[in-house]
Amino acid sequence: MPAVTRHIGLSLGADICWPLAFEQILADARLELKLGADVVTFACERTAIEPVPLRPGCKYDLVVDRLTHWFSVQREWLKKCVLMDGLYVYNNPWSVQSFEKHSTYCAMAALGMPIPPTVMVPQKHYEPKPDLDYTLKAYARLFDLAGLGKAIGYPLFMKPYDGGGWQGVSQVDDEAHLRNAYEKSDRYLMHLQQAVAGYDLFVRAVGIGPQVRVMKYDPSQPLHGRYTTERDFCSAEDESVMVDTCLTINAFFGWDFNSVEALRRGGTFHPIDFANPCPDNQVNSKNYHWPWYVTSNLKWALFCAATRRPMRKTLDFEPFYAIARQDLPYREKLRGYAAIARERLQSEPFAGFCRQHLGPLEAAARRWFRSERCREAIRRKVAHVYPRHEVDDFTARCFGLVQLQLDREEQRGRP
User: Fold this and answer.
1) Whole-prediction pTM value?
2) In which band, very low, low, confident or very high, does the pLDDT at 27 lie, cut at 50, 70 and 90?
């Protein structure tokens, strides 16, 4: 049978731990997959930042991208490769470039998702431009900031319309806080969003292809403690709602790897932050959940590369909007959206591929996460973000939580 090699590129920024895990587990698995008339093997390397000639030519079948949401030259290289070379990359770079938090709120609200009441307010200050003064004097209208706050209701959050990593976010409890936060917002274009006061559960759902993990989240903790180790903290139906929500958002926007943040109040999950393509997947924050992140990333990358999954270059919203126009309860609509998502993400073919071909990969992953190579990868990341005197303690903590996850998986037969 002919031997075929699929080439996987890792487009990286300040990523340290997970690329080591990805590369070493893939090498340990020594996969040789019989697909049709071919025997498929895999090669993996890290991509470089180089000049981009506008002509065909790309050595990779798939690129796992962790850089282009903020690094322009790499984004434009990937767009060229998708258009000219048939590359599959996650996430869709046009979508990442175009859809910030504001437009994603608009789209999901149009589908009926219970987004909290939100208002975008004009900037306090602007970047100087030649026509700015005339434009503002002619068309900018004074607005009643205090009236907006009262109409939305306190407490509320002021946050950038396109932000991330909690930058520029303020909790606002009254008019004085609102005026002070707006005065300090400078050139940020801001949202005012009603807080989901009285919520009883905060979750983050992360999707990698058709795989979704729902995690209990505690924002009051430092970064290393926010993703809790709790499992079975909500009902099967609640978990199903969050899985369907995550899959809907990701498939709608063409995102392979994204996280959805939601608060539950009165039995309803309110999504509050879900434009997070390329979310954090480092061991110092995910620790207990890190084996799932790495293994799921590997599985989706291998499936897409092995099967030459075609890149969806454009986004087709109409099937979702067709469901939104139907006179149905929201939960029924959400099931319909998620069915479209599962089809687009090839949920059933992916599951069959994993069962048939990726047993050796899962075994290699379990061995690696128990190994000293895992501990060393963790240590390298920890040493990058913590003071020297804390490296030993945080290395032991993260490695111990990884072992706890593996122990529970073995005891219960699932993560």
Assistant:
1) 0.95
2) very high
